Amino acid sequence: MTKTWNVYLSGEIHSDWREQIQSMTAQAGLPVAYSSPVTNHEASDDCGAKILGGETDPVWHDRKGAQLNAIRTRTLIQDADVVVVRFGEKYRQWNAAFDAGFAAALGKPLVILHPEEHRHALKEVDAAAFAVAETPEQVSHVLTYVITGQLQ
Question: pLDDT tens across 38-88, in order?
Fold first, then answer.
């Protein structure tokens, strides 16, 4: 029986990097189950207020959403075999940095994905990672090697 690897895909939600990794690993026939945070920006921001009641103060609006999202995020990271965290070009992903730190604190194998120009800014995050990639293709190759023991 082949192990199914649980891979959590954290980080920026404004590009198709998750779909690229999932497509490449599916084409390689890897036994991987993926999970991720809620990637609908509006749902993620507004879930707390919509479910638990509106807030007039934006701080409490954001806090309610962050706490609900943390239930999902922390549970899925704890269950993950590998955590991939993507830092994109356009926005600062503070949540991604938190997820990377949480995964590192749990001793989870961490793969960081970001463009070359972010190397200096993310040096501490990169130092905690088992691999640092610049493309979704490299992440796919990391997963292929780790799961199969074969180089592509």
Answer: 999 899 999 999 999 999 999 999 999 999 999 999 999 999 999 999 998
> Domain 5-37+82-148, what fold?
Rossmann fold (3.40.50)
Instruction: Report d(CA 111, CA 129) in Å as an integer.
Output: 6
Could you tell me the residue ranges of all domains in the chain? 5-37+82-148
Q: What is the pLDDT of residue 1?
A: 58
